[in-house]
UniProtKB/TrEMBL annotation:
<comment type="similarity">
    <text>Belongs to the insect chemoreceptor superfamily. Heteromeric odorant receptor channel (TC 1.A.69) family.</text>
</comment>
<keyword id="KW-0716">Sensory transduction</keyword>
<feature type="transmembrane region" description="Helical">
    <location>
        <begin position="303"/>
        <end position="324"/>
    </location>
</feature>
<keyword id="KW-0812">Transmembrane</keyword>
<dbReference type="InterPro" id="IPR004117">
    <property type="entry name" value="7tm6_olfct_rcpt"/>
</dbReference>
<keyword id="KW-0472">Membrane</keyword>
<dbReference type="GO" id="GO:0004984">
    <property type="term" value="F:olfactory receptor activity"/>
</dbReference>
<dbReference type="Pfam" id="PF02949">
    <property type="entry name" value="7tm_6"/>
</dbReference>
<keyword id="KW-0807">Transducer</keyword>
<feature type="transmembrane region" description="Helical">
    <location>
        <begin position="271"/>
        <end position="291"/>
    </location>
</feature>
<keyword id="KW-0675">Receptor</keyword>
<feature type="transmembrane region" description="Helical">
    <location>
        <begin position="37"/>
        <end position="62"/>
    </location>
</feature>
<protein>
    <recommendedName>
        <fullName>Odorant receptor</fullName>
    </recommendedName>
</protein>
<dbReference type="GO" id="GO:0007165">
    <property type="term" value="P:signal transduction"/>
</dbReference>
<dbReference type="GO" id="GO:0005549">
    <property type="term" value="F:odorant binding"/>
</dbReference>
<keyword id="KW-1133">Transmembrane helix</keyword>
<dbReference type="GO" id="GO:0005886">
    <property type="term" value="C:plasma membrane"/>
</dbReference>
Length: 394
C-alpha cells in the first residue's frame, strides 16, 4: 500500500488546536473525558463568548452622547462579528473535519519531488499566514494595555459596562480590568482561528491544483515515437498506462472540485463577515478619530487594530486571486500535455477533462461577492465613502 509522502492537513494544525481549546472538537462520546470537556466548553464560552460582548453592547446602549457612541462602536461591532464568525465555525466544523479524509487521498497521489514541493509550499504558506496575523493581533492586544497604562486617569482598555462601579475603588477597577484582559485574550485567540482558516484552506487547495497541473503536464512527455512493428506490444502497454494515469487525473480533478465545494460552504459566511467587519471597523475608526479627537494614549492601539483588520482581508483576497490563477494554470497544463500522439481513447478522455476544467471555480463570500483583490479595493473604497458621508455630520 502506498504511503503519503506529505500530509497537507497539517496546514490546519494550529487552527484545530485553538478550536479544541474552545470546545469545538470534543473527545468521543464513550470517552471518560467527554462530559468534563463539554462542561469546560460551556463554562468557557459563557464566560467569554457570551458575557464579554454583553459588557460592550450594554455600554453602547447606555452611551449618553455621540462621543461615547463613536468610542464604543468600533470595538463592539468587531467583537460581535468575531462571535458570529465563531458561531459559524461551530456550525461548519463537521464539514471541515470531512476535508481531512479527502486531503489524505490527494496526498497519496503526490509522488514526484515537484508535486511534493508545491504541497509543502501550501502548508508553509498556511502556517506563515497564521503566524503573521497572530503577531498583528498580539501587537493590537499589547497596545490595548497601553491605553490603560498611559492614560492620566483610571480607565479600562475598552469602554465596557460592569454590574459594579469599577471607578469606586482600586480593587473594583482591578476586577474589571482583569476580566477584560482575560476576555480580550481569549476573544483575540478565537478571532485568530476564525479569520485565518479560510486562507489556510484556500492555499492548500491551490497547492493541490498546482500538483495536479504538474501531473497532467508530464503525461506522455518522456514517451518516444514507435515506428518498429516489434515495439507494438510495448507501445500498447505504455498507451494503456498513460490512459490510466489520465483517468486518475480526472478523478483527482473531481476530488479537488468536491474539496472546493466543501471549503466554499465552510468559509463563505466567514468571508462575508470579514468584509463587513473590516469595512465597518475602518469607517468607525476614522469617524472616532476625527469626531471625538485623537487621544495619543489610544493611537498605537488604533493603528495596530486598523492594520490587523486590513491585513487579514488583504491576505484572504490575495489567495482568492491565486486560486483563480491556479485554475487557469491547470487549463494550460491540460493543453500542454503530449496528447497529439496518443490513441483515440486517451484523446476522448483528454477532451472530457478539458471540458470539465473550462468552468473556473471562484471563491464567493456569502455566495454573492468574489474573494479577490478587486473586492479588497472595493471594500476600502466603500469604507472611505461611508467615512466621508458620516464625517459630514460632524
Amino acid at each position: 500500500m502506498a504511503v503519503a509522502k506529505i500530509h497537507t492537513w497539517k496546514a490546519f494544525e494550529y487552527h484545530w488546536r485553538l478550536w479544541t481549546f474552545f470546545g469545538l472538537k470534543p473527545p468521543p462520546r464513550n470517552s471518560v473525558w467527554f462530559k468534563p470537556y463539554v462542561a469546560y466548553a460551556i463554562v468557557l464560552n459563557i464566560s467569554v463568548t457570551f458575557l464579554f460582548p454583553c459588557t460592550l453592547i450594554i455600554n453602547l446602549i447606555l452611551a449618553k452622547n455621540m462621543n461615547e457612541v463613536c468610542e464604543n462602536l468600533y470595538n463592539t461591532i468587531t467583537d460581535v462579528i468575531c462571535n458570529v464568525k465563531f458561531l459559524n465555525m461551530f456550525l461548519v466544523r463537521k464539514k471541515l473535519l470531512q476535508i481531512n479524509q479527502i486531503l489524505k487521498r490527494l496526498d497519496m497521489r503526490a509522488q514526484t519531488r515537484e508535486e511534493i514541493n508545491e504541497l509543502q509550499k501550501g502548508v508553509n504558506s498556511a502556517r506563515n499566514c497564521f503566524k503573521i496575523v497572530g503577531r498583528l493581533f498580539c501587537v493590537a492586544l499589547i497596545t490595548s494595555q497601553l491605553v490603560a497604562y498611559l492614560s492620566p486617569e483610571r480607565i479600562l482598555m475598552y469602554p465596557a459596562w460592569f454590574p459594579w462601579d469599577w471607578r469606586a475603588s482600586k480593587r473594583n477597577f482591578l476586577y474589571a480590568h482583569s476580566y477584560q484582559l482575560y476576555g480580550l485574550i481569549l476573544q483575540t485567540a478565537q478571532n485568530l482561528g476564525s479569520d485565518t482558516y479560510p486562507q489556510a484552506y484556500l492555499v492548500v487547495l491551490i497547492g493541490h491544483i498546482k500538483a495536479l497541473s504538474l501531473r497532467i503536464k508530464a503525461l506522455g512527455s518522456e514517451v518516444t515515437s514507435f515506428s518498429d512493428a516489434s515495439d507494438a506490444e510495448l507501445k500498447e502497454k505504455i498507451e494503456n498506462h498513460l490512459y490510466r494515469e489520465l483517468i486518475d487525473c480526472i478523478i483527482d480533478h473531481e476530488t479537488i472540485n468536491d474539496l472546493f465545494r466543501i471549503v466554499q460552504q465552510g468559509i463563505s459566511s466567514t468571508c462575508l463577515a470579514q468584509f463587513f467587519c473590516t469595512g465597518l471597523a475602518q469607517c468607525t475608526i476614522g469617524v472616532y478619530t476625527f469626531y471625538v479627537g485623537l487621544d495619543y494614549s489610544k493611537l498605537p492601539n488604533l493603528v495596530a487594530y486598523f492594520g490587523a483588520v486590513t491585513a487579514e482581508i488583504f491576505i484572504l483576497c490575495y489567495y482568492g486571486d491565486l486560486f483563480c490563477q491556479a485554475n487557469e494554470q491547470l487549463i494550460n497544463s491540460i493543453y500542454s500535455c503530449n496528447w497529439v500522439d496518443r490513441e483515440k481513447k486517451f484523446k476522448q478522455a483528454h477532451r472530457f477533462l478539458l471540458q470539465r476544467s473550462q468552468k473556473i471555480n471562484t471563491v464567493m463570500a456569502g455566495n454573492l461577492i468574489p474573494v479577490s483583490l478587486s473586492t479588497f479595493v472595493t471594500v476600502m473604497k466603500t469604507a472611505y465613502s461611508a467615512f466621508t458621508v458620516l464625517n459630514k455630520f460632524n
